[in-house]
Amino acid sequence: MSEMNKIATATERPLPKGMQLKEEETRARDEILPEDIHSVHHFYQWFSSLEKEEFEENDSLGLYLNKLSIYTETCKSLLDDMALTEAYVLDIEKKFNLVSKKTEELHNSCKGVIMEEQGKKALADGLREKLVFFDELESIAKKLNNPALSVEDQHFLPLLRRLDECVLFLIENPTFKESASYLTKFRQLQTKGLTLIKNFIVNSFKEITNTMISNANESANPTAKNSNFLIPRRVDDISIFYVLLKSQASRIQPLCKEIELRIMKHTKQPPAKAKPEFESTYIGLLTDCQKAYFYDRQRVLLGTVSKELESLSTVHEDLHTLIRSSCLYLMNICEMEYELYHHFFSTTSTGLRMLFEVLSTTLYDNIRPMIIRCQSIDVLCSLFHILKTEIVEREIQKKGSSVAAFAPIITRIMEDIQERLIFRTSLLIRDEIEGFKPTKEDLDYPQKIINAKTQAANNENILIGYMENTETHIADHRYLSWYPTLEKTLACLSKLYLTIDNDAFDGIAQDVIKVCTQSFISAQTLIQASQGAIDGNLFMISHLQTLQEEIAPFDINFTIKETVLDFSAVWTALKVLLSGQKPLFKLSRDNAIWSLITEVKPRIKNTEIDYKKDMEMLLKQTKSAFINDISNMLLKEISGLLTQISAFSSTNKSDPLNEKKLSEFITTVKVKNVIDNSLSHLRAEFPPIIQKLSIYLEESKQQYDLYKPIKSNIIETFSRVNQIIEREYSDQDITLIDLNDIIKFLDSTITNPHFQSI
């Protein structure tokens, strides 16, 4: 069966039952399809006819379809061309990559050749640069060996710099071939160049010095001609002298500066780059030049300064003026020497300080014998203050480093003055205070105080128009009334207070106050023997209080701590040993010698002495003694009566069976007589005592401190008598003592108006 027949047969078959169209679909189909289509074949025929009709109706669509077909063929042709082109491009790319690779290889080869060329060129340049240092040997040697070469030549310093560069290069590169031999040759040339500099500087200093000395010697001859160089000894001429010296620095200073710059340059290098051997060469050269400078300066200055100081000592007999002039002269020299040194050198040197010390030692050697011969404490103190205030604080601190080296000698002179002061003060304490021998006028108290006040009053009348001088003379009478040892003690302390150090001052103050107090005790004993106990005690009280008041501003440390060895146990053991209480040669521990060696040891004792407390205790004891003496003197008779009454009362208590009345033992008449005599004695003796008290003690508070306990003792004693009268003599004709009247009388004796207001 052919294919068409199969299709026709298939199309004519009816649809299967399961594929029957729905009613809606059947209705839509019937509206479109013709009624005679009953099979698929009929449908295809109908569709072909329908398509043909539409194609005929739409011919433009056919044309468009043809165009599309043509375009499709064209696109296929283009795609084929593109595939061919892509194949060509891939082939070209492959060939390009091959060419590029070969080109890169060629470029790298050329670059390597260029780098190799540059490396060889750099190596050649480096070798050429390094060989330059080796090649410089012949050129530098030729120039240095030239007899006409001078260090003042403008080409000398650049030549020396180049020589140093060569030496440094060879030091930094010791592995180069023949570097050691070349370094040795360069060092020889360097040594030669530095020797030329050293010889020039040293010879220049020596030439200047010799010229100055020779001209100075010629100037000593009246027939000698004037010269530009002199060694003046007067301060007014020194400035001109140093100006002439500074003018010579222009030849030497550039060379010295060049040396110092090289040292500073290599000193500032880090440790890894430091060249100690190179630096030490120039340090040694600079040191030699400075030594030559200081040696020549010392030759010039030492004799001149010595002669000038000797001249000043002959011109100025006053030690104050001599020390002031000598110090100022020497400081002026030091200051200008400092400036002169820095015209040649810019770095500091210990040689400058040593030069100043040598010059200062000349001053010290000249001044010290005068200080040792000085006997006056006043002069020594004034010398110390001149050196401290005028020289150290005003001059040395103001001028600073230029005269700083002068300060140690001044300090040394001040220390010598302090030692001399301490020695002279110890002699003064021994001879004039401890060994003081008072005259009759020195012990004439209270007349000495009265005379001093009278003299002050006369001075006040004379100088009544000058208030300041009047006040001074009014205050002076206190000093005139002092015991001589008190005046010397306070004068000594006031002079030494700002002159010696605190520890030494405290030691001297303790000694002098102790000795002064002992002199008061000795004087008190003599005054008591000649004037009586009242004057002796008042003398002691007034002088101790004055001493306390006057030494208070000095802020003295009165406490002394001492450490001593106590040998009392040793002495006890020796007594036992010598007494034979223990056997000496017994072979046991109960042996006197063994006990002495092993058991007995000296003990360390720490003691503390306070002179201030001792003085206060002495003053307190003296006041107490004065109060008791006055009370006993004024109330002697009535105190005896009270003693008898006390004895009678004790007897009655011991024998109560034979008890008696006091009126039977002491009659009323006797009691009246004792009271009357005591009151009369009080009224007669108390005013002179108060008058003496006001003479010795001018301050009302000091008077009141003594008056108050005396008054209390008097009132208390008479109060006890009144109590006894009321108790034992109430039936007798005895009137009680009027205590208010006694108080009024005691107060009326006080003539000081300030005293009554207390």
UniProtKB/TrEMBL annotation:
GO cellular component term of the entry, any:
cis-Golgi network
Transport among the record's keywords?
yes
Annotated compartments: Golgi apparatus membrane
Protein keywords: Golgi apparatus, Membrane, Protein transport, Transport
- Cite the Conserved oligomeric Golgi complex subunit 3 N-terminal domain residue spans from the record: 64-207
Membrane topology per the entry is: Peripheral membrane protein
Indicate the secretion signal residues: none
Boundaries of each Conserved oligomeric Golgi complex subunit 3 C-terminal domain copy? 240-570
One of this protein's Pfam families, by short name? Answer: COG3_C
The record's section on InterPro entries has: COG3_C (IPR048685), COG3_N (IPR048320), COG_su3 (IPR007265)
Q: Biological process GO terms, please?
A: Golgi organization; intra-Golgi vesicle-mediated transport; intracellular protein transport
> Main site of residence?
Golgi
Q: Which domain of life is it from?
A: Eukaryota
**What PANTHER family does the entry give?**
CONSERVED OLIGOMERIC GOLGI COMPLEX COMPONENT 3, CONSERVED OLIGOMERIC GOLGI COMPLEX SUBUNIT 3
Q: Which family does it belong to?
A: Belongs to the COG3 family.
Descriptive protein name: Conserved oligomeric Golgi complex subunit 3
Q: Which organism is it from?
A: Arcella intermedia
